[in-house]
Design a protein that fits this description.
With about 100 residues, this protein is mainly alpha-helical. The chain has a domain of about 60 residues. The protein contains 4 helices and no strands. It is globular.
Length: about 100
Amino acid sequence: MMKKKRAKKYWSGRVTSESNALDLEGGVFAKPDPRSIALSLKRSAEESTRRKARPFQSAMSMLNFYINRAGKNLPASRRKVLEKAKMELRQLFGQI
């Protein structure tokens, strides 16, 4: 008798589909412009009824989660855009 290989279950995959963090716009992290990423995250954070923290904290957490989750698979050029989106997000929320 051969045992079936069980698919690994990652908590991070569940976070993106079931999280109470934010309702994100589809493809937000694939946008080419850091400002448009930041604006979308800001809009989602302010409109979401599912977030538990302040809008700025929720938006930044989702951006950091995405960057950390991608890890080594995230190309340097994409990481650069997302890091710039962090700066844009700080400016939009007046955190600078």
